[in-house]
Amino acid sequence: MDRLTIPAPCRSRRDFLQRGAALAGVGLLAGCTGQRPLWPLAARVTRIGYLGGGSSEPYRALLDGFRQELHTLGYVEGESILIEYRFTDSTPERAPAFAAELVGLNPDLIVANGGVPVAAAKAATTTIPIVGVPLGGDPVGTGLVATLARPGGNVTGLSTVAGGTIAKRLQLLREAVPSISRAAVLWNAINPVKAAEYKEAQAVAESLGLELLSTEVRGPNDFEGAFQAITSSRVDALVVLSETLTLAHSAWIAAFTVERRLPSIYETREFADAGGLMSYGLSLADLFRRAATYVDRILKGARPADLPVEQPTKFDFAVNLKTAQALGLTIPQGVLAQATEVIQ
Q: Can you name the CATH fold of 13-161+284-306?
């Protein structure tokens, strides 16, 4: 399947309503600068809405994998399947309006990226199936599903529950750079899952003899101040708790760590690709591919209420040697031997 360009999200309701009829057979539906696509009348065409919790660029490769898996399952974009995209650009307040727009298009199914978009989609419809990729770390506690085994309602998907990964990340950071004693932790303070993860990190750090400095962000405008706080604190390393807000700014964060010569570790592989030193955690690429199988099963008649929420099964440990060289670090062979991928 050809690589497809992800359109920019609609910026206003007026933009949305002013779109005209779409051309048949295009690979992706037109963005806000074009005309509003009208779903074809042919019953064989599947209509999917996608609500992203971040911006399009960091998720480009992930969505490529999702579409490729759909293609493998027999769906041809522009022929048997059409996808309409919305991205909140890390501004969660946009999620309810975008969810309502997608529901207004009457799709066969909605795919939502992250707990906030899933919750917005669920609030907008009780009948259209919703696949969360991911649903967040505690979809039961946040009320998105009744139980992992029997979700109930119209929501199912994949969670990010994977206890103990923060402990492994701190351990790997200490093994890679034994001299560190203080590390800043950059995290989204309005994400309850990350709040719990930070508490876990504090307990683990104490056992490793590490002091942690909490550095909080709540939106895109908070990163400059966070970087200044990290610089003035004179920490030895940076730990980033990954989710849509931090992932949307992965390249900026990685560039900052190189500029300040800070060893860093992250949860997902996308940060290492963006120039971060190391990443260990669940494979987002695997979750997005697996989400396509949920879509396929629902389109073939399965009910979201009966499809168990699955947890991560694949984990990546990536080391970026180019970044290590820029930081003047030599990563021990014992650490490299554990890596699933070494980025040269």
A: Rossmann fold (3.40.50)
